[in-house]
Design brief:
The complex is a heterodimer of chains A (about 110) and B (about 110). With about 110 residues, chain A is mainly beta. Chain A has no helices and 11 strands. In chain A, a hairpin with a 5-residue loop joins strand 4 and strand 5. Classes of the chains: A mainly beta (about 110), B mainly beta (about 110).
Amino acid sequence: AQSVTQLGSHVSVSEGALVLLRCNYSSSVPPYLFWYVQYPNQGLQLLLKYTSAATLVKGINGFEAEFKKSETSFHLTKPSAHMSDAAEYFCAVSPYSGYSTLTFGKGTMLLVSP
Amino acid sequence: EAGVTQSPTHLIKTRGQQATLRCSPISGHTSVYWYQQALGLGLQFLLWYDEGEERNRGNFPPRFSGRQFPNYSSELNVNALELEDSALYLCASSKYGDITGELFFGEGSRLTVL
């Protein structure tokens, strides 16, 4: 069975600072991995996904994530935070089994201060 | 192309009542998923429907049920409402044949149980 661990329920950064949100996964097979973002009172929007084509994945709004098999990690980064990046971020792993659905981490709330 | 649509946006019920939530997937998507997002509990998988059949179910009591119609829309029913059922209920759909498992989410229905 697969699982996802997101370190830190809250991360605070200043505007213009580097954003780093951590995600570690557990999967018995090479996984598909996702980062979703949820703005207040909205649904989840896909930021980016890893499908084994390239280990460095670029997404929307300047975010990117690097798949590191040796570390079983898929951390999300952005060089310079904007106030509009304040939201909750979810990492997810695909079951690769056909009879289940994405497994989500518990989420990390990103707080951006001026 | 219209996204996943959910109704109602907000719903207020009292304990013991029944709630019905509705979801229309993106055109061409045959699978529908329901998640519960309660405060502090992250995203909890509820139900997965595909081609009118229930494919998988999360760890929820039987009073959570649903169905999928021939046009692939779906409804979630919650019977004998309890206070802890208050949550944002998210519906998602996926493309037929997409092995990555990517989900496309609606904006959610917020259920408040008084």
